[in-house]
Design a protein that fits this description.
By secondary structure, this protein is α/β, with parallel strands linked by helices. It has 15 helices and 16 strands. The chain folds into 2 domains: 115 residues, Roll (Urease, subunit C, domain 1), CATH 2.30.40; 290 residues, Metal-dependent hydrolases (TIM Barrel). Helix content is 37%, strand content 24%.
């Protein structure tokens, strides 16, 4: 085995290797290997296993980069499968209002929420959007995210949605974080269509989706299926049109109430149903039968002060593969940190550390249909990894500098200090 990149002297490597996605008890298997090494060549992993095996069988190129883990841990690069990282404007004033007792629905009714960000995003230039988003991606990278999803949805006109997707495309080519683009024109009914919502649904189906497909600007289509936003019937119609156009499907479901979104997810067999705070046993069984991933966003629950988290234990016990994401966004996704999402999943949703790690890596990669390339440390996959300054469970130490280095395609793209 020839390698040009090596991490050695690791007390443990949690590979998360094996079939994807992990369901039920299998979600607890993080593939821990003690006293291990990980080696790569030309950006691809050639070895992940006990260090003594590497010493017997491995060879380094003359110019190889060798990283001493100093007894720390190595985990796969985090995959963040649900973000609204592209936006303009600032809604931190809404955070102050929520802290003073205002609800998300009350703020939205007064012209805040998504429509506030829509105004700012429509007015922003592509360069401004790209510069603002690049800083957020930098924050995500420092926290260990090496692959993420990014949605449109703050334009709500054909041109503004395409503008957002062009920004995503530019950053996907330029930034170290690998980006999977999602079209989400069905994020909200814009103000100018509030008295003719059917016309807006038709615009999404008849104009936006065909143009997104023609320009190959997105891989996915997402819909916010929620009371007061898009009904289950509208959501299904939009997603079916997207599927016909060649886009893969995901859905915001049952976030603020039992919206029927999980039923749409199961009926259409979408790849991922996200949020699911109000899903019940029947809904969970439907997702399990359809093979839908449950992408949970505990950071959003936390910052929106919803008073509850998605029932992760129910979902796992019913055989649903659970993934985690940050929901980076201007109104309720204020943390770029997948380790923070893992922490809330452990202490707010009852996951074990291993379940949370699998949810943030290989299951999250499956939620983005990237599992064949990223999400685990095993031969043939991309060398995307996080070096932890201590045991892996130190990742739940919120505010501590536990991410010592981040590796993307066999290259250090962030190093603490």
């Amino acid at each position: 085995m020839l390698a040009d990149f090596l991490i050695h002297n690791a007390a443990e490597v949690l590979t998360c290797a094996g079939p994807a996605p992990r369901r039920g008890v299998a979600q607890r298997d993080a593939g821990a290997i003690p006293r291990a090494a990980v080696a790569a060549n030309n950006g691809a992993i050639v070895f992940a296993g006990p260090e003594n095996e590497w010493r017997q069988n491995g060879t380094l190129t003359p110019d190889a980069q060798v990283v001493d883990a100093r007894g720390g841990a190595v985990v796969p690069g985090f995959v963040d499968p649900h973000t609204h990282v592209v936006f303009a404007g600032d809604r931190r004033d809404e955070l102050r209002r929520r802290l003073a007792g205002a609800t998300y629905a009350h703020i939205a009714a007064q012209g805040g929420g998504i429509v506030s960000t829509v105004r700012a995003t429509r007015d922003a230039t592509e360069d401004q959007l790209a510069a603002d988003t690049r800083r957020r991606l930098d924050d995500m990278l420092r926290c260990g995210t090496t692959t993420c999803e990014a949605k449109s949805g703050y334009g709500l006109t054909t041109e503004a949605e395409l503008k957002m997707l062009r920004v995503i495309g530019t950053l996907a080519r330029e930034h170290a974080v690998e980006i999977s683009p999602t079209f989400m024109g069905a994020h909200e009914i814009p103000l100018e269509f509030r008295d003719r919502r059917r016309a807006y649904v038709d615009l999404v189906i008849d104009e936006m989706i065909p143009e997104v497909a023609r320009t190959r600007a997105a891989e996915w289509c997402d819909v916010f299926c929620e009371t007061g936003v898009f009904t289950p019937e509208e959501s299904r119609e939009i997603l079916e049109a997207a599927r016909r156009a060649g886009l893969k499907l995901r859905i915001h479901a049952d976030e603020l109430g039992a919206s029927g979104g999980s039923g749409v997810a199961a009926a259409l067999g979408v790849r991922s149903a996200d949020h699911l705070i109000f899903i019940d046993e029947g809904g969970a069984d439907g997702l399990a039968a359809a093979g839908v991933v449950a992408t949970l966003l505990p950071i959003a629950s936390f910052y929106l002060k919803l008073g509850r988290f998605a029932p992760a234990r129910l979902l796992i016990e019913r055989g649903v593969a659970v993934a985690l994401a940050t929901d980076v966004n201007p109104g309720g996704g204020f943390s770029p940190s997948m380790p923070f999402a893992m922490t809330l999943a452990c202490f707010g949703m009852g996951l074990t550390f291993e379940e949370a790690l699998v949810a943030a890596t290989i299951n999250a990669a499956y939620a983005l249909d990237r599992h064949a390339r990223v999400g685990s440390l095993e031969a043939g996959k991309q060398m995307d990894a996080v070096l932890v300054d201590g045991p892996a469970i130190d990742l739940v130490r919120v505010g501590a500098d536990t991410v010592r280095a981040v590796i993307k395609k066999g290259r250090i793209v962030h190093a603490h200090g």
